[in-house]
Amino acid sequence: MKRFLLWTFDRGSIQYDVICALILAFIFLIPSTKFNDRPSYMRVLESDPEVRKTLENGTAVYTVKLPEASYWDDDQHRAIAVKRLQEYLKFPAVPVTTKPIYKTTGMTIAYAIWVDEDQ
């Protein structure tokens, strides 16, 4: 076991090839959902509501879905997300920070919006 942990095998040996195969199997066969590496406000499911509020370290973060996915993260799509959030909150909320949320294909599907609620 010590030799496996310290990687003392020569290249081309059967042990080296087995270790490499195990590492590649781990990388490609374990689904990314098992790692839980995204904050909860960055996870968007089809069953989620259009606007969802999440507390992240005591701060409210709103996840706002776009009506349709887009290849671009631009001011027009940010404005759509802010408008949907304002309609949901029923007051003119001013976003402090806005971050796009992407699908695995790279398309923007939603925005995470931090709003100063003390206004």
Describe the protein.
This protein is α+β, with helices and mostly antiparallel strands and 119 residues long. The chain folds into two domains: 2-30, no CATH class; 40-115, no CATH class. Helix content is 30%, strand content 29%. It contains three helices and four strands. Strands 1-2-4-3 form a four-stranded antiparallel sheet. It is elongated and about 65 Å long. The relative contact order is 0.14.
> Strand sequence of the main sheet, in spatial order?
1-2-4-3
**What is the averaged pLDDT score?**
83
Task: Identify the overall geometry.
Answer: elongated
The class by helix and strand makeup works out as: alpha+beta
Number of strands: 4
Q: What count of helical segments does DSSP give? A: 3
The H-and-E topology, N to C, reads as: HHEEHEE
Quickly count the domains: 2
- As a percent range, the share of strand residues is 25-35%
What is the CA–CA distance across the termini?
60 Å
Helix content: 25-40%
Low-confidence stretches: none
Biggest sheet features? 4 strands, antiparallel
Radius of gyration: 21 Å
Short description:
This protein has helices at residues 2-6, 14-29, 75-89, and strands at 51-56, 59-70, 95-102, 108-115. The chain has 119 residues and is of the alpha+beta class. A four-stranded antiparallel sheet has the order 1-2-4-3.
What secondary-structure arrangement, pairings included, does this model have?
Blueprint: H1 2-6, H2 14-29, E1 51-56, E2 59-70, H3 75-89, E3 95-102, E4 108-115
Antiparallel strand pairs: 1-2, 2-4, 3-4
